Amino acid sequence: MCGIIGYVGKNNNAINVIFKGLKKLEYRGYDSAGLAVIANKKFKIIKSVGKLYNLDVILKKNFINANIGIGHTRWATHGKPSKENAHPHTDFTESIVIVHNGIIENYIELKTKFMKKAPKFKSETDTEIIAHLLKKNYKNNLLHTVQKILTMIKGSYALGIMCTEEPDKIVCAKQDASLIIGLGKGENFIASDIPALLPYTRNMIFLENGDIAEITAEKVIIKDIKNNVKIREIKNIQWDTMQSEKNGYKHFMLKEIFEQPHTIEETFRDRIYINEGKIHIKEIKFDEKYVENISNICVVGCGTAYHAGLISKFLFENFAKIPTEVDIASEFRYRGPILNKKKLVIVISQSGETADTLAALRLAKSEGCETIAICNVIDSSISRESTNVIYTQCGPEIGVASTKAFTSQLSIIYMLALDWGYKRKKLTNEELKKYLKELWEIPSKIFQFLKKSKDVRNVAKVFVKKMNKNKILYLGRHINYPIALEGALKLKELSYIHAEGYAAGEMKHGPIALIDKSMFVVAIAMKSSRVYTKMVSNIEEVKARGGIAVIIAERDDREIASKSKYIIYIPQTGEFISPIMTVVSLQLLAYYTSVFLGYDVDQPRNLAKSVTVE
Ligand code: M6R
User: Fold this and answer.
1) Between the CA of residue 534 and those of 59, 310, 526, 527, 611, what are the distances in Å?
2) DSSP string, 329-369
3) Which of 58, 148, 236, 535 is least enclosed, having the fewest CB within 10 Å?
4) Stretch (H or E) spanning 24
């Protein structure tokens, strides 16, 4: 939710650095954007509603030479998307300017307590109050003023602040929202995420909660609220800059779908030893005794990460015989889960910043549970707070719809479940080797499928042409039931078509009433599955009521050809491994449907990549 960026250097190109940074952060929010620079000791503030393109148009006509500035791309929480509500915000005298990612929970209380006689606020945001409080308390030292007002504020924030009295510095602060400092030569940066900094530096400091930093072109000082100096490690980030570029693809999402053979391989690298038939995830320090004694697992995540959790239940229960519960993170802490030292809690999050998943992790830790985080973003809040972290190794995922992160999350879950199954003596070495071989072959199978994806484009064209009621049902059973949910989520978020994922056996208990001759039903029918014949019966039930079946089937399945005109064939895989393959076809189907409908695939309306608010 929202991205912030800041630059201070010796060159007068602050506007370019900030705009390019905002482009890289646009996935975090894109309903409005703005920036502020200091020129001739005064702020120049430029804002616009809508995507960054609109800001670019204004900037092209109003280039300003400046060597310091901050910028923001917004996902609205308080106040509709409008120029007034867009960041940066200033105090009434326009001598302090701020950008903010997060939520100030007590902003109404602060407004009534401290600003009684103040003129009317310029915006409806929870952020503006911070600018006024800073001005009110300012006594020639911005850092000290920030330290003072942060004692009054409750909530989450990554803040970037400038002041005309001290025009050579940016002060920033972090609490429960990501904030990184990029260290350059004669220039320094702040940003919400790594890709915005990669064109300039690989040396980065990941601020911790409670950190307040003063940044000039030559120096970075990090302190806490009590003015104690904090020493933070400088990390050298090895991400490939190309990974955060489109690299010739029309959209990030398409590029990320096509990257999957590589990102899955990277996730397996140095963890699967195919010749020895062994798995070793060095990040997990559990000894054999601990693994033997795991009595229960609880898996928590949101959206796509939750769907990875649903699949994990099949894998932990079938391979390792460990009873597993799966929770939507936003429900977890409110349902009163039974947590104790014997429970292992696994949280899954691409961004590592999802507020509900972070809250679930904190609850689990406070009850003494052992925790594992499966994350993509290095040094994110979740990965830092979890007792164990396994990274998905897929580089930055920029498309708002999660694709490559999901298949890498699944790759990690397969490895954990197989490893623990073997260590708990629930799988023989032969069985382990068989599954490892199936997993190992997945990247090349996905590659083969992606090379010939004409089937998918054809079905997407038919969706767009023939669908007149804007509703689609996705059916799956057993381990592909969560993939039906994921396929429906992808289509919904990208195409604004109401799609619902259902366990196929449940269709008779309600959704069948929806079926008529305009209704498309996407059914995942894997021949290798124990429920294949049952899926085929469900498809017949759809057809008997006039519904149009679109079937995801295995390439060697001859029988299925007679069941529908619309079949997407995928390479054959083992039953338990199939979700990692079936999902790719549904990602691509959602992608093309959205493209043919003319929507913005990478930035669907109302969404943001990381949901850092409850
Ligand atoms: O960063 P996270 O994995 O924690 O994000 C969870 C969800 O917000 C995310 O998967 C969301 O559902 C995506 N838009 C799905 O494509």
Assistant:
1) 59, 21, 11, 11, 38
2) HHHHTTS-----TTEEEEEEESSS--HHHHHHHHHHHHTT-
3) 236
4) helix 14-25
CATH assignment of 252-450, among 3.30.870.10, 3.30.70.20, 3.10.450.50, 3.40.50.10490: 3.40.50.10490
Å from CA of 608 to ligand 1 middle: 9
pLDDT of residue 611: 79
2: annotated active-site residue = yes
SS3 for 162? strand
pLDDT at 461: 94
Counting as low any pLDDT under 50, the low residues of the chain are none
Give the start-to-end residue ranges of the domains of the chain. Answer: 3-238, 252-450, 454-597
Q: Is 109 helix (H, G, I), strand (E, B) or coil?
A: helix
Q: Backbone dihedral region of 570: left (phi > 0), alpha (psi from -120 to 50 degrees) or beta?
A: beta
Question: Nearest-CA neighbor of 95 among 61, 47, 137?
Answer: 137
Q: Give yes or no for a contact between 532 and 538, defined as CB atoms under 8 angstroms apart.
A: no
400 close to ligand 1 (CB < 6 Angstrom): yes
Question: Mutate which of 27, 402, 412, 594 to test ligand 1's pocket (most atoms within 8 Å of Cβ)?
Answer: 402
The confidence score (pLDDT) of residue 475 equals 97
